[in-house]
Amino acid sequence: MEGAGQRLGLEPGGFLLVVSGPSGVGKGTLVERLLEARPECALSISATTRPRRPHEMDGVQYHFVTREEFERRRASGYFLEWAEVYGHLYGTPKAFVEECLRQSRVVVLELDVQGGASVRRAHGSAVSVFLYPPNVESLRQRLAGRGADAEEVIERRLQNAEGELEQLSEYDYAILNDDLERALARLTAIVDAERSRIARMRRTRP
Q1: 28 φψ region: left (φ > 0), alpha (ψ -120 to 50), beta (else)
Q2: Is pLDDT at 137 greater than 70 in this prediction?
C-alpha cells in the first residue's frame, strides 16, 4: 500500500552529514560502509596539499593539489570550508555539495575534528556525528597498523586526540566505534531519521 508521504507527494530531504573524530578512529571504513548501504549518500572528496600515500589515488581519497593551487582555489571561493591540519591544507569543494543538496542527497563529509568545526560554523544546518574509540590504545593500534606515519607523528596525533575527544559535546550525535556493524547500524539510523524530518522533506507533486 502506498505510504502517506508518497500519497502527499513528499520525498526525503538532503543534508550535510559530517562524520568526524580523532585520527585513527575508523572514520574512513565506516563512511565506506555507509556509502555501500545507502545509495542516497554521496561522498564529498576534499582537496589537500598533503603528500599522497602509496595506496591512495587522486580523486578517490582526495584531490591532491599543490599549496599554490589550493590557495588559488581558496581565494576564488571554491571551498565550502578549509582548515590546516599538521601543516597541510584541506578543503571541501562547494559546487559538489550544493549540487547534491539540490538533488536531495545526503552529502557525507569525512573530516577531522578541526574540519568538522569549520563545517559547523559555515553550515549551521549540517548534521554532525562524532565517532569515538573505546580507548586511546585502540587509536594507537590503528595508527600503527596503517604504516603511514612515523612514531613521532603517531604520538603527536595521540596527544591531539585527547583534546579532540573533549569536543564530543559540540556534536549532534556520538557513536562508539567498538564494533563496525553496530556503528554502521547507528549511523544509518541517524541518516534515515534525519532524512525524514518534516522541515527537510519536499513536495514532488503540486
Answers
A1: alpha
A2: yes
pLDDT at 143: 73
Q: What is the 3-state secondary structure (H, E, C) of 116-175?
A: HHHHHHHCCCCEEEEEECCCHHHHHHHHHHHCCCCHHHHHHHHHHHHHHHCCHHHCCEEE
**pTM of this structure:** 0.83
Please tell me the distance from the alpha carbon of residue 124 to that of residue 2, in angstroms, as a whole number.
Answer: 34
Q: Is the pLDDT of residue 48 over 60?
A: yes
pLDDT digits (tens, 9 = 90+) for 92-106: 999 999 999 999 999
Q: Domains of the chain (ranges plus CATH)?
A: 13-194 (3.40.50.300)
